[in-house]
Amino acid sequence: MSLWIINLITALCSFAIAGASGIWLVPFLHKIKFGQPIKVKDGPQWHAKKQGTPTMGGFMFIISTIITSIAGYWIYRKSAGLDVTAISTQNNFYKLLSCIVFSVLFGLIGFIDDYTKVARKNNDGLTPMQKIALQLVFSAGFLFALYKFGDTSTALDLGFWVSPDLGIFYYILMLPVIIYLTNAVNLTDGVDGLCGSVTFAAMLIFTICSTKLQERELTCFTMALAGGCLGFLIWNLNPAKCFMGDTGSMFLGAAVTGTGLILHKHLLLVLVAMVYILEALSVVIQVSYFKYTKKKTGEGKRIFKMTPIHHHFEMSGFSEYKIVITFSSAGIIFGVLGIITLLVF
Predict the structure, then answer these.
(1) How many C-beta atoms surround the C-beta of residue 124 within 10 A?
(2) For 126, left (φ over 0), alpha (ψ -120 to 50), or beta?
């Protein structure tokens, strides 16, 4: 059985599991009153009507991805007749497993944050320092795992230019990259269906790139997550019946970042993650400009109507569906540029 057929089956099964699990999970979250607290200042005023929508729906695609990616790998391993005693086979499996565990650990951070918000009945979960401390520990563990399982290169690969080996400084540089990207994905989850749709596109792009780069085992994970995101969107497209919560968005952030780092193509990672990067960058620009103008003139000014930038588009009259389509299309365009860099360089 070819890997593409296995991946297609994996994605379809993940889609079915994620979509079907909502039939039980959404009413259960309603029953235990795990609704999302909404702060009007965190989004347009009309988002207040979403108060109480069940959160932690990310469990739908987390569970489906774990089950189907591991099952897909074992089917591929058997059908391809891989030599399980070969170091390369073992390392590829452990890198796949490391990406899954890394994503789950970040999902755990999100779960603790979500649970704290629900328990307190407000939008204040873990403190920023608590989040960053946990993220640093898990990120360092993931980088160590990649090193142990064969990725010993410490060069930055930007396609048109590959840096000299940076040694320990490579890992020091990658830690803030991981923190930025994972939290950027988290920021993208502010409009119904947005984060799931953009990540669905990113995982399809990563599947193509993983195949091109001979990281075939990793495609079991990327296709499983793509299918899981699609299944979740049944419940999350506007009007959302369930939110993924930080549980889901932190899992997705680690999945996107982890996949990119395993491929060790840093320009590719930047391009595939460009929508997330711009979302977080809009917040940085807004806050920096506000503080600068307030210091200079005594009155803070804004560049965007609201950030992250998807709220700017929303305040400008874009419907949530239009934002999802626009941002997902942009993600596909940047992703295709990433594929081109692999073909050219």
Answers:
(1) 12
(2) beta
Q: Which stretch of 32-46, 76-90, 304-318 has the lowest confidence by average pLDDT?
A: 32-46
Report the percent of the chain where pLDDT is more than 70.
97
Nearest to 37 by CA among 125, 118, 113, 115: 118
C-alpha torsion sign, points 281, 287, 288, 290: positive
Pair 339, 204: CB distance under 8 Å: no
Residue 20 exposed, middle or buried by CB count within 10 Å (0-12, 13-18, 19+): middle
pLDDT at 121: 67
Closest by alpha carbon to 150, among 202, 62, 215, 222? 215
Domains identified in the chain, total number: 1
Q: At what angle do helices 216-236 and 194-212 cross, to 10 degrees?
A: 170
Expressed in percent and rounded to 5, the helix, strand and coil fractions of the chain are 75, 0, 25
What SS3 state is found at 35?
A: strand
Amino acid at the residue 284 = V
Please give the pLDDT value at position 256.
98
Closest CA relative to residue 74, chosen from 84, 60, 64 = 84
pTM of the model: 0.96
Domain that includes residue 140, residue range: 3-344
DSSP string, 100-136: HHHHHHHHHHHHHHHHHHHHHTSS--S-HHHHHHHHH
Give the pair of three-digit tokens for residue 85: 């005693």
* CA distance to 45, 54, 121, per residue, from 38 (Å): 10, 12, 10
